[in-house]
From TrEMBL, chain A:
MF terms (GO), sorted A to Z: dipeptide transmembrane transporter activity
Protein name: ABC transporter permease
Source species of the chain: Siccirubricoccus deserti
Gene3D superfamilies noted in UniProt: MetI-like
Chain segments annotated as transmembrane: 9-27, 103-124, 136-161, 200-219, 254-279, 304-330
Subcellular location: Cell membrane
Keywords, sorted A to Z: Cell membrane, Membrane, Transmembrane, Transmembrane helix, Transport
Automatic annotation (TrEMBL), chain B:
GO cellular component, one term: plasma membrane
PROSITE patterns: ABC_TRANSPORTER_1, ABC_TRANSPORTER_2
Family: Belongs to the ABC transporter superfamily.
Lineage, highest ranks first: Bacteria, Pseudomonadati, Pseudomonadota, Alphaproteobacteria, Acetobacterales
Protein name: ABC transporter ATP-binding protein
Location (main, coarse): membrane
Segments forming domain ABC transporter: 7-257, 363-603
InterPro entries: AAA+_ATPase, ABC_Ni/Peptide_Import, ABC_transporter-like_ATP-bd, ABC_transporter-like_CS, Oligopep_ABC_C, P-loop_NTPase
SUPFAM superfamilies linked to this entry: P-loop containing nucleoside triphosphate hydrolases
Gene3D superfamilies: P-loop containing nucleotide triphosphate hydrolases
């Protein structure tokens, strides 16, 4: 077991180094000149200003040298200075990431909490109304465009029924809790501030449902398919011949086997939620990485883009590592 | 006072509701099992025996449904019970063991929980009591270190061990009745012998009544006093097992008994087996009269029109046959078999000569740091095959017999050693050099469902090798040759335009043989060509292979695990263990006087015969290269000298054995 974990960790480290190289090459070979994006027309027409500006940001150095500096910086936790915000990229990311992590994690929990039971029910009561309903929910979730769903939800629950709060992480007049983790739910709990906790939770409801919609569909379908396959296995018939209750068979024999493919999908889905909240964040004015990404890309802010890409790839690697570890927990055949 | 039967089945009817109409899978089956009794149910695939077994516990799944009859367990009607009452019986008073132990255990649940959960669920034990009972059960099932084994997962167990666990699960609540559906079909003979022995012992110790379902009468004879023979959803004969084997009273039972060569019967002069032609009737359109009549060699006019009842033909013997009910006696089949000594090869130039053949398969690394592991499949085999003879190759799974065939046909390249085919070294030859030889050396595979491309028409399958070797053009010439080939293997030439899925297993195997024959080879390597087939079809295919050999002078290398068939068909036999030849001798000699202890053990493990030597344990892993005598770990007469590998030496004319003490291990008493 320990060896399995160590092997996976080593693999993840190798992948991270490769990811950094890829990130760097992509950022430095795409067409687009940050000079033109950052400097005004007047300044850009002055060669001296341009030279000075390029020297300041190290853009005059050869590619390999810049890579060396970048790698050195990454190893020291230094992702460079954002051209747009003039602040360390890491500080920017640290500021925006918690909002996204909070949103994505809640959305992920919602997706699992809805998708897995729905998938189980659809498989157990195959071809019943439950199955049909699950199919419709999945289809709607997967095929609705996020921005459309976001607007509809806001229009109905905020604009129409007025039972949900508007965009943002908190009411405009509320103060954020004292920062410990940056995750408002946790910070407000730590501060014992129930009003803020409640406010945060209420603000998370709509965006997390919108963000989770597509994932719910995927998880429901995968769970259903995996359950149906596991229910065909001989050990299920053996369990019936043992006189076990159907409920026990489903939960203790079928489900643990069916969860294995769901975990694979879950890992990919969580990584996607972390990196793919741009639409949702924009509509819900969510001060998260998605919006930061969008702004940095528009400004051709290379240090920021590289920083974000790096963080996203490393977090994807971490999620995959978690997936590998959960395999080991779920499936004894994987452990060595 | 009359004892209440454990199980009383009356007129059971189970149908499959298909789009084409109800398929009567079980059609009026009745039998009774008394406490502690053993009943076997035998029949071909599709005869309804497994559906009967599932019906007994009402474990059928859609679209199967029980539509009639009654199943009384200790006097209570199972068909009238609600689900809850039924569930209370399942796994408690009645338990069931299924065919495939590899899939019957949940891979992600520890053995212990799989053994204890139904003890706890039925309120027979607290979790702590269940645990200690489970561990003692594992011990009784013959699993070493039961305490440690209980904490393991199924994938850490071999097939034989898993079937022991399944039996442990079956006996956990000390049931009154155990239903075992082909419990040993997926296992090797020596392991099968262990499991059957265990079943017999458990029947004695626990007093549990057993219903054993199998396609193999020998297996049933090993465990069961009585047997019911099923055909097309009906019981056609029911009697003592020994009586049926000796003197069957229904023509179908007669065919079953005589289709299989018995290892105990003396060899005669004719190798052809009794094979009845045709196939079981279409269950959607059952004949009005006797269902076996269309295939029956003894039918009379009445059989075509009137459906016979199951009636007593002799005291304690029931048969569903107008002929035997009228007092007729079915003839004894001519003593089938052949004493092969007449054709023992002399020292002529062999067609195939193998020396020092080795094959290692490296496994992928488990991780970056793990050492590379190697499967030692074949570890130095020497063999000669004479022109026109049939050499049998036998051994348990993992002994390297299939690898040997794949090396000789150069599907794999050997790691070391030489293969000389008709004077030409092919062991290390390049693909281009071998190509012209391929047409002279053909292969027939085990699984006729997997070895024919489902998207090709049979005519194209047969013409393909001819065209590939440039022997024939497309068009009329190819069609003519295909017609000829189909006729040769006994198939209707008009079927050339059909696809493989339109054929039965036996017909497909005929197509496989026709494909091998297409190139007019000198030698055919047949890798378990009949093991996927029903016994009657086996007999048909074996007869076909014999005919073809006589007509075309073919040489066969016949790989099989069924020793009775090998004894019957082969001139000489090579016994393989862990990739080495243990013994190589003329068939008659080998079976009469085995020189190697492993040969003795294998022969005695064949079901349906007395005087069994039970071998402990299972073959060791092929991941380690065997040292010394590979068999010494399980050998009943191993001594320190066996650490040095015994050479394969001729001990009697034509009889080779690799053993330091040839012939010393007492052969099992010949029945």
């Amino acid at each position: 077991m320990l060896r399995y974990v160590l092997t996976r960790l080593l693999g993840a480290a190798v992948m991270a180094v490769l990811a950094i190289l890829v990130v760097f090459l992509i950022a430095n070979t795409v067409p687009g000149d940050p000079v033109l994006a950052q400097l005004g027309d007047l300044a850009a027409s002055n060669p001296d200003t341009v030279m000075e500006w390029r020297a300041k940001w190290g853009l005059d150095l050869p590619l390999w040298e810049r890579y060396g500096l970048f790698l050195w910086g990454v190893l020291h936790g230094d992702l460079g200075i954002s051209i747009a915000s003039q602040r360390p990229v890491l500080a920017d990311i640290a500021q925006y990431a918690p909002a996204t992590i909070e949103l994505a994690t809640i959305a992920f929990v919602v997706a699992l909490a809805v998708g897995i039971p729905l998938g189980i029910a659809a498989a157990v009561r195959r071809d019943s109304w439950v199955d049909a309903a699950a199919r419709v929910i999945s289809l709607v979730g997967v095929s609705s465009p996020t921005f459309w769903l976001a607007f509809i939800m806001l229009a109905i629950f905020y604009g129409g029924l007025q039972i949900a709060p508007g965009p943002g992480r908190l009411d405009p007049i509320a103060f954020p809790p004292e920062e410990v983790t940056g995750l408002f739910l946790i910070d407000s709990l730590l501060a014992g501030d129930w009003d803020t906790f409640h406010d945060t939770a209420a603000h998370l409801v709509l965006p997390s449902i919108v963000l989770a919609a597509a994932t719910i569909g995927l998880i429901t379908r995968t769970t259903r398919a995996a359950m149906l396959e596991a229910m065909q296995q001989d050990y299920v018939r053996v369990s019936r011949a043992k006189g076990l209750r159907e409920r026990f068979i489903i939960l203790r024999h079928v489900l643990p086997n069916a969860l294995i493919p769901v975990v694979t999908l879950g890992g990919i889905a969580y990584a996607n939620l972390l990196a793919g909240a741009v639409m949702t964040e924009t509509v819900f004015s969510w001060p998260g990485l998605g919006r930061y990404t969008f702004r940095s890309a528009a400004a051709l802010d290379f240090p920021a883009i590289m920083g974000i890409t790096l963080v996203v790839s490393v977090s994807t690697l971490l999620v995959n590592l978690l997936v590998d570890l959960s395999y080991a927990a779920l499936d004894p055949r994987v452990r060595r | 006072m009359r004892e209440i039967p454990v199980l009383e089945v009356k007129d059971l009817r189970t149908v499959f509701l298909t789009d084409a109409g109800p398929v009567r899978a079980v059609d009026g089956v009745s039998f009774t099992v008394m406490p502690g009794e053993t009943l076997g149910i035998v029949g071909e695939s599709g005869s309804g025996k497994s559906v009967t077994a599932l019906s007994l516990l009402r474990l059928l799944e859609e679209p199967a449904r029980i539509v009639g009859g009654s199943i009384r367990f200790q006097g209570r009607d199972l068909l009238a019970m609600d689900q809850e009452a039924l569930r209370a019986l399942r796994g408690d008073r009645i338990s069931m063991v299924f065919q495939d132990p590899m899939t019957g255990l949940n891979p992600v649940v520890r053995i212990l929980r799989q053994l204890t959960e139904h003890m706890v669920a039925h309120g027979r034990a607290t979790p702590a009591e269940a645990k200690s009972r489970a561990i003692s059960l594992l011990g009784r099932m013959g699993i070493t270190a039961p305490e440690r084994s209980a904490a393991r997962f199924p994938h850490e167990f071999s097939g034989g061990m898993r079937q022991r666990v399944m039996l442990g699960i079956g006996f956990a609540n000390d049931p009154a009745l155990l239903i075992a559906d082909e419990p040993t079909t997926a296992l090797d003979v020596t392991i099968q012998a262990q499991i059957l022995d265990l079943l017999r012992r458990l029947n004695g110790e626990f007093g549990t009544a057993i219903v054993l379902i199998s396609h193999d009468l020998g297996v049933i004879a090993d465990v069961c006093r009585r047997v019911a023979v099923m055909y097309a959803g009906e019981v056609v004969e029911e009697a003592g097992t020994a009586a049926v084997l000796a003197d069957p009273r229904h023509p179908y039972a007669w065919a079953l008994v005589n289709a299989v060569p018995r290892i105990g019967t003396p060899l005669g002069t004719d190798r052809r087996l009794v094979a009845i032609e045709g196939a079981p009737p279409d269950p959607l359109a059952l004949p009005a009269g006797c269902r076996f009549a269309p295939r029956c060699p003894f039918r009379i006019a009445r059989c075509e029109t009137e459906h016979p009842p199951l009636a007593e033909v002799a005291p304690g013997r029931l048969a569903r046959c107008w002929v035997t009910q009228a007092g007729e006696v079915l003839p004894k089949a001519g003593v089938a078999g052949f004493v092969g000594t007449a054709r023992i090869p002399v020292a002529t130039q062999p067609i195939l000569s193998v020396r020092g053949l080795e094959k290692r398969f490296p496994l992928p690394r488990e991780s970056l740091l793990a050492p590379r592991r190697v499967v030692h499949a074949v570890n130095g085999i020497d063999l000669d095959v004479a022109r026109g003879e049939t050499l049998g190759v036998v051994g348990e799974s993992g002994c390297g017999k299939s690898t040997l065939a794949r090396l000789i046909t150069r599907i794999h390249a050997p790691s070391a050693g030489s293969i000389v085919f008709d004077g030409q070294e092919i062991g290390q030859a390049s693909a281009a050099e071998i190509r012209p030889l391929r047409r002279r050396l053909q292969m027939v595979f085990q699984d006729p469902y997997a070895s024919l491309n489902p998207r090709m028409r049979v005519g194209d399958i047969l013409a393909e090798p001819l065209i590939a070797h440039g022997l024939i053009g497309r068009g009329a010439a190819a069609r003519e040759r295909v017609t000829e080939l189909l006729a040769t293997v006994g198939l209707n030439p008009a079927w050339a335009t059909r696809c493989p899925h339109e054929f039965s297993g036996g017909q497909r195997q005929r197509i496989s043989i026709a494909r091998a024959l297409a190139l007019q080879p000198d030698m055919i390597l047949a890798d378990e060509p009949i093991s996927a087939l029903d016994v009657n079809i086996q007999a048909q295919i074996l007869n076909l292979m014999l005919d073809l050999q006589q007509r075309m002078g073919l040489t066969y290398l016949f790989i099989a695990h069924d020793l009775a068939v090998v004894r019957h068909l082969c001139d000489r036999v090579a016994v393989l263990y862990l990739g080495k030849v243990m013994e190589l001798a003329p068939s008659a000699e080998l079976f009469a006087r085995p020189l190697h202890p492993y040969s003795s053990v294998l022969i005695s493990a064949v079901p349906g015969r007395a005087g069994r030597i039970l071998l402990q344990g299972e073959p060791p892993s092929t991941l380690a290269k065997p040292t010394g005598c590979p068999f010494r770990g399980r050998c009943p007469i191993a001594r320190p000298i066996c650490e040095t590998p015994p050479p394969l030496v001729e001990h009697a004319p034509g009889c080779f054995a690799a053993c330091h003490f040839p012939g010393e291990f007492a052969p099992p008493p010949s029945p």
